[in-house]
Amino acid sequence: MLFLDAGVYFEPYYSRARVIATKVIVLTSILDDIYDVYSTLEESQRLTEAIQRWDAKVVHQLPEYMKDYYLKLIHTFEEFEDLLASDEKYRITYLKEATKELSEAYFEESKWRDQHYVPTLEEHLHVSLISSGYPMLEC
After folding, report:
1. Which one of 4-8, 15-19, 31-35 scores highest in mean pLDDT?
2. What residues have CB less than 8 Å from 102, skipping those under 6 apart?
3. Residue 91, SS3 per DSSP
4. CB of 122 within 8 A of CB of 78?
5. How far apart are CA 118 and CA 56, in angstroms?
6. What is the distance between the alpha carbons of residues 118 and 22, in angstroms, rounded to a whole number?
7. Alpha carbon distances (Å) from 54 to 49, 59, 124, 130
8. Is the dihedral of CA 71, 41, 45, 137 positive or negative?
């Protein structure tokens, strides 16, 4: 995906977009791994709830290994806002909402896995459209 990023934003003028997109891709990859590999269902639920609240003050509710990631996610989005001009900052709101939707989709897939549930095609398409990450990366 990082190569795609450089291919889409190759002109020097888009260096800021490359930096933001690369950070988003890396954070998304780590988030996916947390849900798929490292967290229990209960831990995934707590992470999802924290991301929905989007407040650094709820970090104490997370397992120790998730705290650094969660704070990095929050602070990186704050950095994005600092990089943008005042008339561009609204874009981060859309990115936050898309990240919230992504975490919900990852959590849904985790529930399916742990409950040995096979979703219907319609359920799967509804969730996987979001969990693919592309709606969030469009932001």
Report:
1. 31-35
2. 28, 31, 130, 131, 133, 135, 136
3. helix
4. no
5. 35
6. 33
7. 9, 10, 26, 19
8. positive
pTM: 0.89
| Cα–Cα distance measured from residue 50 to residue 104, given in angstroms and rounded to the nearest whole number | 11
| Token output for 50 | 């924290």
Digit-coded pLDDT (tens) for 73-124: 999 999 999 998 899 989 999 999 999 999 999 999 999 999 999 999 999 9
**Smallest Cα–Cα separation from 91: which of 73, 103, 104, 77?**
77
Q: Residue 103 has what pLDDT?
A: 97
What would the two tokens of residue 94 be? 């859309």
> Which tokens belong to 124?
């799967």
